[in-house]
Every structure is written in C-alpha cells, then in structure tokens.
Specification:
single chain, alpha/beta, three-stranded parallel β-sheet
C-alpha cells in the first residue's frame, strides 16, 4: 500500500479460530485463503500466535502453520508472532526434529 512517497507495510496476526460448528480442517482452509488474500492485497507479513489448552483456537504450533502458509504463497513473509516462552524450548526441539524429517 502506498501512502505518498513511502510504503506502509501492514501485517496480520492470526489466532486461527475454530468457529462454532466448524472444525480444524475448515480453519486450515480458511487460513490458506486468508494468507493468499493478504499476499494479493500487498500485506508484508502474516503472523501466527501460539495458544494451548483451548478448543476454540488451533494455533498450538505456529511453526507448522507458517510452513503450511509458506507452501501456499509466493512472496509474503510468514512466521510466529506470539510465542509462549515456557513452550519455546520444546517447540524448538520439535521443529528441529520435524525439519530433519522433511529434509
């Protein structure tokens, strides 16, 4: 988005809600569509939050959501925009294991 001579860089922070009457599969489809739409509209980044022990949010693993979003987009930057520090060491360990399996 242009504002005069400078470019305003906008980002989205997604909590990845699982709405009443829906399921995780539909939420994943929704975020795929949202990140693609954000990319088309010129957003710079798409962030995922990290939440645990809730049935209404599916963002327990923002790194996996980020990889999914990156696989369905071309240029928008994706990543974790809110990480629980107490979960960080376990999350990093799991991410390293996952990346070793993928590579």
């Amino acid at each position: 988005m242009n504002t005069g001579n400078s470019r305003l860089q906008l980002s989205i922070l997604d909590f990845v809600h699982v709405y009443k009457g829906s399921d995780a599969s539909k939420s994943l489809q929704n975020i795929t569509e949202m990140v693609q739409l954000a990319e088309r509209w010129g957003y710079t980044r798409y962030w995922f939050t990290e939440h645990h022990n809730t049935t209404t949010l599916m963002s327990t693993s923002p790194d996996l959501l980020s990889m999914h979003a990156a696989a369905h987009t071309k240029s928008i930057r994706v990543g974790s925009g809110g990480i629980l520090l107490e979960m960080l060491s376990r999350s990093l360990s799991n991410s390293i294991k996952l990346r070793k399996q993928v590579l």
